Amino acid sequence: MKEINSNQSQKLLEMRKISKSFPGVLALDNVDFDLNAGEVHALVGENGAGKSTLMKILSGAHQADIGMIRMEGRTLKIHNPRIAQDSGISTIYQEFNLIPHLSIASNIFLGHEPKQFAGFISKKIMTKETINILAELGLSINPDILVRNLNVAQQQMVEVAKALIYHAKILIMDEPTSALTTAEIETLFATIRSIQLKGVGIIYISHRLEELFQIANRVTVLRDGKSVGVFKISEVNKKDLIRLMADRDLKEYYPRIRSKVGKTILKVSHLNRGNYLKEISFHLKQGEVLGIAGLLGAGRTELAQAIFGVNQIETGKIFVKNSPADIISPRKAIKAGIGFLTEDRKHSGLVLKMSVKDNISLPNLDKLSKYGFLKRKDLKNISLKFIEEFRIKTPGINQKVMNLSGGNQQKVVLSKWIARNLDILIFDEPTRGIDVASKVEIYNLMNQLTAQGVGIIMISSELPEILGMSDRILVMHDGKITAEFDANNVDQETLLAKALGEVA
Amino acid sequence: MIPKALIHHGRQLGTFLGLIFLCLILWILTPYFLTVSNLLNILEQSSINATIAVGMTFVIITAGIDLSVGSILAFSGVVLASTLQAGVPLPVALLAGMLTGTLCGLLNGALISIGRLPPFIVTLGMMSIARGAALVYTNGRPISGFEQSFRWIATGKIFYIPMPLIVMFIVYFIAHIVLTRTKFGQYAYAMGGNEEATYLSGVNVRFHKTMVYALCGLTSAFAAILLTARLNSAQPIAGIMYELDAIAATVIGGTSLMGGEGTLVGTLIGALIMGVLRNGLNILGVSSFLQQIIIGTVIIIAVLLDTIMKKQKR
Known about the structure:
A: alpha/beta; Rossmann fold; 6-stranded mixed beta sheet; 32% helix; globular; B: mainly alpha; ABC transporter involved in vitamin B12 uptake, BtuC; disordered N terminus
């Protein structure tokens, strides 16, 4: 494993000695980064390591304090996103910048519409060019279809097509696979390879280290705002990368410690809801982690929502501690002792404008108030307790959660439920988009909880996580539970086959 | 080193400095502005808008809007007036007025939170309904002439301080406590910041949202009491366009129309800015036509400054 000496004469992109500080933080410290034409260069690091700041500087959202950016040998001053775009730098964010009620073609040409005389838009040219560009990406789809009718993977293709229309030479992809199924990821990789051939350089940011070995040529590791090194992907392995990112060997990536399994605390029988849930029956015991595997759209989240009272079930019964529970709202679910960590913490887990303290206390205010008045001391103490216990990195309890990193935000969501002392916790994608160190902390927390007798249902799209952290695993496909395994007696391939609906 | 409190209350401080700046300019332009009697006059004139803006602040914090406050004021006012003239004891009449406002607000809230209708539409409808109700109730005629005990609410003084100011400050004090120190206040911010996350945290969103609109109806009724007592008359056409002044005061005071943030201290300062501006322009003899242009400009500049400052913070 040795660092590459990058002294070739003309790089597509060179970023030299980039530094950037925000009030109180040195986000980037003397970072070098370069990119060749036709290369996939991965950028990895824990949350807060500086990846997004570096990319925001490249895309013009932030300006570097010090440092230089050169593209194809010319110095470039990127004062705003428009300059970046005009220079051929495009970014595909995790949240797409598409307008759902416009067609594919209109989205691709938005702001760059081919004009005929008198400023009228030429729909014909748009349609034709869209078909061409989609075909290059290996997608044959009617360009008049509205974007809201596409699935996530197709929408991503539209984003890529948009970048190509803008004549992008550099494409930044931020966690492009986080919402994709395994099959869709393969398609995405094929697309990436085809645009690579066109000489486009791709900066690829991902937490899923496995992927890098399939798609990346080189990898740059950032840690605490510094570049730890640039490596050819063939010269490193996953363990090396984790060690470089975290600067410590994570001996146990999935540190599950099985707890003593107690009585059944949740029993679900013959749950039905339209096409989403069909005849779902299962149980959960004290101290157990029950993993639920399955592809996107298999009904996993719908199941969690049904148990938590978000969506009404049509038929079926839910028993909590052997007594039937009438769960018609989240409020009733919480009263019955169930907590739900949703898959999208920004959209449904946190009030981003509110402080760490206010978010942790939100589901607990009935206990933290008297005659409607807040017990301000208790509020403060409980927040301080969780910040310390879970090592939430925040300047204070009054910091707005929107200013925290993903991993720390997730710890706030966990705190708000754990503060409630519930018996049953449903975790939907608990480690999505968060850094390795925070992941392990969350796993350890799950161990602590089950040791205290809490039963955990964990929904995850990451099979290693399901295998590593569950005691028992249910597989869902097409709204049904298709298999149940002891986590010790099953492998990834079997789970995947079941999730894909294959009958063994 | 900037004191922590200053950062925390930076937004209010900005608005407050704006108010001081405005006062300074008017003081330079006219000697009449900075007299005790004129300042008290401004506060008194602002008290009605400021009182309505209390409920409006709660509503806007939940990312809603209430266009019906002016009409609810009129309806509560005429109900109050008619019960007073019917000879019922003063507290009962006051209660009747407050109940009218609260019920209108409750209906707004129920339609918005249970009927899942947009606040803009519901309160636009209520704006017309409550106005119509006031007109039907009075046959379009004002109800005038009340006993001194009632009029004292607007004309009386305690230790040289006019009663409307005392009423206004009491309303603000209680509402501030409710907004910052109670579960209800916390839920208001949470619903405005992220309604889904709040619902999923087990909060009874429907109930609390309904109550926010009921509270807004109640503060409109408080304003109706002040206005009726001051004019010694309740007009079914009172309070037209008051919703816009209340929204302006709230927004100038730093409450975001997107919901989730805002303070009552800010709103009070916002209402005072509006009052000072009106008063100053009157003293300077600026035509009422031109006044509208100036006030509109000030509202836009205030929000523009706020937006720019927020962007820089990021």
